[in-house]
Design brief:
By secondary structure, the chain is an alpha+beta fold. Helices cover 23% and strands 34% of the residues. Strands 9, 11, 12, 14, 15 and 16 form a six-stranded mixed sheet that branches. β15 and β16 form a beta hairpin. The radius of gyration is 30 Å and the shape is elongated.
Length: 306
């Protein structure tokens, strides 16, 4: 019995060595297969690993001084992108879900980092404002859904201003360059969307609120002409006037909910600004602007009864 037990000991030692070794080899093989075969082919890998965010940050960090760089995500939302923006002080970030910022004169090529992982409005707007512009997808994303895309605009391109006014309306340092009515005939009870394009002559420390009014012009309504309104800091509060820079346009959208009982007929659209702190209106400084009730009239719509 002792002889048999002694003969088995070397075999047991071999098994005790081979078993852990086999487990380690299998584990290394499985891990390598997961990393280099299964996960490498996984379409969602870049999203799960936040590779798109790091790649967007690298794009911002490596942007050359020979181009204007704009990023369609609020600063502070994604740590990697925020770090890149804090390093590249020349880059301009804005909330693409509520706003669009674009240069008034393209002396340099313009490069947008359109963050589709955050919003899907900027790309369509850019195609309308800059028809010569073109979209590029980072090869990193392959055929998958990209976290961001590039949109390039050549230097010297003329920007389209939606509803461009013949003469800009000036409110002290602020200029209203365009008023675009998405509908000119609206049914009572529905919403009316008005897109304004702003600019500024010089930086201002003031925080202004924009108002868009629906006004009834009839003599019966002279005492209370206001029928609907939308008051908001520019771009739903995401792009206050103290952030604006000379040489850029701010695309600012306002939605007015029309009362269901609104009478059919023609109505005026009034636009203006007031100080968010004091509520004092910013005076108009452009001569020959059509005004009613102390505000600039920038358009007309027809309301159809329900």
């Amino acid at each position: 019995t002792l002889t048999c037990t002694a003969a088995r000991l070397p075999r047991l030692r071999h098994l005790a060595f081979l078993l852990p070794l086999s487990v380690l080899i299998f584990s290394a093989w499985a891990t390598s297969r997961d990393y280099f075969v299964r996960w490498a082919r996984w379409p969602s890998l870049t999203a799960v690993m936040d590779v798109g965010k790091w790649r967007a940050a690298e794009t911002i960090l490596n942007s050359p001084a020979s181009e204007t760089l704009l990023v369609t995500i609020p600063d502070g939302l994604e740590p990697a992108i925020s770090y890149a923006l804090s390093t590249n002080r020349a880059a301009r970030a804005f909330d693409g879900a509520h706003c669009l910022v674009y240069p008034s004169r393209l002396t340099l090529p313009v490069h947008y980092v359109v963050v589709l992982g955050y919003e899907h409005r900027s790309l369509e707007r850019l195609r309308t404002i800059f028809p010569p512009g073109y979209r590029q997808v980072d090869p990193l994303f392959g055929d998958g859904a990209p976290y961001f895309v590039h949109f390039f605009v050549p230097a010297g391109t003329e920007a389209n201003i939606p509803g461009e006014l013949h003469t800009p309306i000036m409110y002290r340092p602020v200029l209203l360059h365009g008023v675009y009515l998405h509908e000119t005939t609206v049914r009572a009870g529905q919403a009316l969307t008005v897109t304004l394009t702003w600019g500024i002559l010089e930086p201002t420390p003031n925080d202004y609120t924009v108002f868009v009014h629906l006004l009834e012009e009839s003599s019966e309504a002279a005492a209370s002409p206001l029928k609907a309104q939308h008051d908001s800091p520019p771009c739903n509060g995401t792009e206050p006037t103290w952030r604006w820079r000379p040489g850029e346009y701010i695309l600012d959208e306002h939605v007015l909910q029309l009362p269901a009982e609104l009478s059919a007929g023609a109505y005026l659209i009034g636009v203006g600004l007031y100080d968010s702190r004091t509520l004092e209106r910013v005076p108009l400084t452009t001569p020959d602007v059509f005004t009613r009730w102390g505000e600039a009239i920038v358009g007309y719509i027809t309301v159809v009864a329900r």
